[in-house]
Design brief:
It is built from six helices and 16 strands. The chain is of the alpha+beta class.
Length: 236
């Protein structure tokens, strides 16, 4: 068992003294109960929240943001011997991709060994936004944009409404919160404008325009907490 203020400090909430003040102010809870100064926790078991948002306090949790290049598969291993996203980040501790970008799609991808966060980020009920830039064939008209915004019929059912803008004649910015296979490509094809090039530019609160293709970095503690807020159960 570890003193709560030490766990909070290790999670990047603040110095130990500042974390003690947060505990005294009633801003920290453990397993749903307001914490008290002197409390100890087991980071592998206890749920610690700061201002109502669960924080990652378990030791050994890693969070990488990767700018996935094209020609790399979003799996931990590939029977065809193709390069994988896991090959591009440190091998220890072992991490896994959150969600999927297809072989021809590039852009931001999160990899982590935090199974709970992965579940919430990929579960449709949490509705985490993903933003894409799609270069398409032809020049979409207003009717095509309207169809994308209202939802289009695919072979696995209609899509949810998307946020769509048109930065250039053949360039679309789409924000969706579903995670179906090749969804953006299929949506654009359904309205008559197949994708030529597709890049994911944002995952919930995560964005980074400085990462070059194939580069990765660790998330900051602020970014991890922002992800936790993004997938917080609205009924909590």
């Amino acid at each position: 068992m570890i003193r709560l203020q030490k766990v909070l400090a290790q999670a990047g909430i603040g110095s130990r003294r500042v974390c003690e003040e947060y505990i005294e102010d009633g801003r920290v809870s453990v397993n749903g109960a307001i914490a008290e100064l002197g409390d100890k926790v087991d980071p592998d078991v206890d749920v610690v929240e700061f201002d109502g948002v669960q924080i990652g306090v378990r030791p050994g949790m890693m969070y990488y943001l990767l700018n996935k290049p094209t020609g790399v598969v979003t799996t931990a291993s590939d029977p065809q011997g193709r390069p994988t996203v896991v090959d591009l980040v440190p091998q220890e501790p072992r991490v896994f991709p959150v969600g999927r970008l297809d072989f021809e799609t590039s852009g931001l991808l999160l990899l982590t060994n935090d199974g709970d966060l992965t579940h919430r980020l990929t579960h449709p009920s949490f509705g985490v936004d993903k933003e894409y830039l799609a270069e398409v064939e032809g020049v979409p008209k207003r009717s095509a944009l309207r169809a994308l915004r209202e939802g289009v019929e695919l072979d696995d059912g209609p899509t949810a409404p998307a946020s769509v803008s048109q930065p250039a004649e053949n360039l679309l910015k789409l924000t969706i919160h579903e995670g179906r296979n090749r969804q953006v490509r299929r949506m654009c094809e359904a309205v008559g404008h197949p994708v030529v090039r597709l890049v994911r530019t944002r995952i919930g609160p995560l964005t980074d325009t400085t990462l070059k293709a194939g580069q990765w970095r660790e998330l900051t503690q602020d970014e991890v907490r922002a992800l936790e807020r993004a997938v917080r159960d609205p009924d909590d």
